Amino acid sequence: MQRRKFITGSSALLLGTTGFRDGLAEEVPSISYRHPQISNPSILPLPEDKRVPFEWQAFAVPAPGADSHPVLKWQNLPAADETRFRLTIAIDIREENEIEIRLAESGEKLGVFDIRFTPVLEPFELILDRGQTAKVAAEGITLVMTKGKLPVWFFTTETDESDSAALKPHLLIAKQADPLTEFHKRVASPVCLQPYGWMNGCVLDGLFDLSKATGEPRYDSALREHLGYFFDKDRKLIYENPKSKPHDGVVSDIESTLPNAVIAKLNPDHPVLDQAVKFWMSRRDDAGCVKDGSTTSAEGSYTIGYPMMVIGTLRNDESLINLALTQIRLRRERLIHDDDCWLRRHKGDHRSFKNWARGVAWYSLGLVRTLAELKTGQDVSDLEAEVERLAEWVSGYQQESGLWNCFLHEDVPADTSGSAGIAAALAIAVNHKMLPDKYRKISQKTYSGLKSYLTPDGLLTGVAQSNRGGQALQQSDYRVISQMGMGLMAQLSAALS
Asked: Going by DSSP bridges, is the β-strand pair 350-354/340-346 parallel, antiparallel, or unpaired?
């Protein structure tokens, strides 16, 4: 497929991650990813209709009842007060799994990966203390699934892994690292890769914004490199849909069109833009709302209205500009009810996911970003008033931590991704004179609160899982690491710069 060749020689994007496969220097850098040798006596074939992204390799942990299990062993591990054992998902998961992490020789249980409805590229980690790390150094680890029906696939260690070290099996050793500094290093690297569509669109917007706000070349370089993972030499789109099925050259759904905003800004004549416009035109209802099936979703405010406005503005296409504004207005009409913000309106005027934090973020980001891209003289006073109403409404739900609960009006744990998206929308609105400066302080409070959720190497924890397990999973305390959330936090960081 002739893609992703740009990674050769770009290890400078990830400091402190090279040269640790076969031994250690005396001085351990601030961030060190120590990769194991993996022996896997239970070799399983990939499911016929699935594909691992980026031509990377993967290994499977077999379903319960298997006779043999993968074993991971390290050479020359140093002593450390704390390490983090991590694996990253390589094939989409639509069930709940539990994988026990055991010492390879004694069988002692160190912990469990609780994996639920997980998209590709989501990392899982187990924090080990000094004694456990010493045992792992001596024995290695074996992985045994105790819950689930299907094998779980993880990325494996490969020869050229420096740029994506945090996505391959590893033990993280952190030494006096500043999590926020490391966050920006990870954002500006392939570690923040996400599945093509809304997830990687969040990251692309974050990189684009940071590049413009800071002028630092690393963000523009990373942005272009990220896009290089998804296109071949002929600029054909190469990706897997949310179920890990190859979907090359086609648009899968309304959520997959978000990246076109950044693509249009970087390359206005890219052929994928015409594909997106054609897709949007084919999915309009009688009122002009672009949607999948009979459901109007808040996602479309961000994944349709915003990129549609970018393309329409660049092409001076007044009909496309007006259609972008229609996307926002119809979602305001259909999803804002008694001031509450609903994620979806289904056939028969039934709504679901009331005040879900990420749904509020999608609606807010789409509204604000679409207006920010508008360069012509349309009357948008109604939408400007909606920005002001929304800002006042959402500010009333901000918690003392600076974050918003996963459902804003409920006593449930916060969601760092939704919080970052909401705060980013407020800060962007302030920057474009849609809101007074008092809302910047609200966004700054969120940014301060998010810092406590960063791992030592800058990954964002506390993210509500991808919305596949229903409302109960979102209302629970189940939270994950997500680079999509890091993309939203990057947008917030750029807006506050």
From this structure: antiparallel
